[in-house]
Amino acid sequence: MLDWSKLKTRASARPTIMSLFSENRNRAEEFSAVAGEMLFDYSKTQIDQDSLSLLIEMAREAEVENCRDEMFAGVHINETEDRAVLHTLLRNLSGDAPDGVEQSELDTVESIRMRMVQFSEAVRDGSFTGQGGRITDVVNIGIGGSDLGPAMGTLALAPYHDGPRVHYVSNVDGAHIADTLNGLDPETTLVIVASKTFTTIETMTNAQTARDWMSQKVSDPGAQFAAVSTAEEKTSNFGIASERVFGFEDWVGGRYSMWGPIGLGMMLAVGPARFLEFLAGGSAMDTHFRETPLAQNLPVLLALVGIWHNQGCGHATRAVLPYDQRLSRLPAYLQQLEMESNGKSVAMDGSDLEVNTGPVVWGEPGTNGQHAFYQLIHQGTRVIPCEFMVARSGHEVELDHHHQLLVANCLAQSEALMLGRSLDEARALMAEKGLNGDELERQARHRVFPGDRPSTTLVYPKLTPFVLGQIIALYEHRVFVEGVMLDINSYDQWGVELGKELANALTPVLAGEAEADSKDPSTQMLVSYMQFKG
Q1: Helix axes 201-215, 174-181, angle to 10 degrees
Q2: Is 225 within 8 Å of 206 (Cβ atoms)?
Q3: Strand partners for 38
Q4: Residue 212 to residues 73, 216, 217, Cα–Cα distance (Å)
Q5: 76-90, 186-200, 282-296, 506-520: which range is least confident on average?
Q6: pTM of the model
Q7: Where in the sequence numbering do the catalytic residues fall?
């Protein structure tokens, strides 16, 4: 377990960002790194060379490089569940399994992927049809990792959609499934049920509702269902033929699974070739992560900046701010990736941790956020590190002036966070407006920006399938590095279990089939107030 005292001491005496630029004319170049055509700039943070050296030293002390190699080699680094962590194998297109991994494992991945390709092509070219003809719409029903990743990715790759319309349903709130199915034709709709065990109550409730909806017009609704699951008996009982069931191994965690069968909806939307480009982007980032020295390694640097801000400086949240409308679901995806992975309170050996673990991750696309929560980021009393993301160019060439304005806003926000506005500058502004005396002073104080607020910027060429793969793999590996340094298991999620258990126990109470006597007084009152009639 790392000694965090040196990092906290350095962070408590951190210099201002502007002073670091004043002392080093080459700071922007020295505190940035590239992977392919992707640039990561972390120069607008209070990390100086000594702090960076300390962070890299801590990463080495935590054996990040060795743990990384163990993960790729299939070592069971998910110790609490005694499982390997091999989601990277899903995007391995080389044909050769990495050292330590059986070739048969990769062969199985490739076999399932080929089945996905064949099924996707059949749906897209009209060989596979519904009762009413060619499939026009696909409804993916899942939750958590079976929804957030592919839903985010499908939206991100909208310019490449040339297949059926793909919709995603996750919430057990009946409004979600009702609103999604409204206007669709059951006879030309394909439903994908994504649940490894085929028992997830939210997913199976929505799946049954979709089946009931389809059965009103389709004589054999099971023929228009597919499943991403390992529970073949349950999928068969649901009426789904085995050729439309796509399984995956237990070494794939839900929030890391969009690279395989969970990404079937994405493949249907953009086609197998584009999906393979997405995998290739992830694989390229894997290679960068494995082969690049720590000081130039994007996932490592992104993680070290996060460690500096959270465990060093004590900043409890981070804002992810993609200046790319099609990445509007990325902050929600990264919420799960980071907070479910690293939201832990005990070390690998079960002992209490000495430092806080994962931060609260949140965000929205720019420029919308500028007219919402940026006020808090700029002038609030708490420092919120920001992670800006922006493409050099957009897909809408005819609207290039839009993109120029978008980029200008992105770069201006990070600049404003760093520069701020002093009280003297604010006074001068108010004087120019003709104010004086107490009113000038009062108005000026409202226009002060503290500045010296840290941010990073990730610049990528264009949001292509390949680049999206790079981005997702970058953040996956960032979470891994942070988890190793914190000495926690980033690949279990026991924190989601207790609420599920209690919800299962409450369902018969709400239905009037059991008493609430064993519940706490607050829950009893709430059950009574709901007056649930079933």
Answers
A1: 40
A2: no
A3: 35
A4: 45, 7, 10
A5: 506-520
A6: 0.96
A7: 340, 371, 500
